[in-house]
Write a structure and sequence with these properties.
The protein is 76% helix and 0% strand. The chain has one domain. It is an all-alpha fold. The protein is flat, with a radius of gyration of 17 Å. It is built from five helices and no strands.
Length: 118
Amino acid sequence: MPAAENLVPYLTVQCVTVATVLLIAAACPSPYPQANRIYLALALYGIAKIAQHKDAVLFSLGRIVFGHRIKHLAAACAAWQILRMLQARWRASGAGCGPVVPVVLRTLGRASRVMRAL
């Protein structure tokens, strides 16, 4: 099998990463607020992967939106869940989160306001 067609390494990394995060989240419950958002993020990631593989089927349903766009929206929502979870953790710990995180959260906040306006 040519290297260009061998998807085993790619699929292994994808599946092992998700399985590892699930196992760690289940085995080591977090005392921080909103820690369960990790499960929502993983579900959204799963939706993104399904949308990626069912692109043509999703487009044929109504010819409005491609699965590729749904994939990006679901992945962005998954990342948003992780950021919200970390934001709650930083607030609960009382520790500062450095200069980068507030800038990222402000930018994402603006993006979410734009999305709500659409």
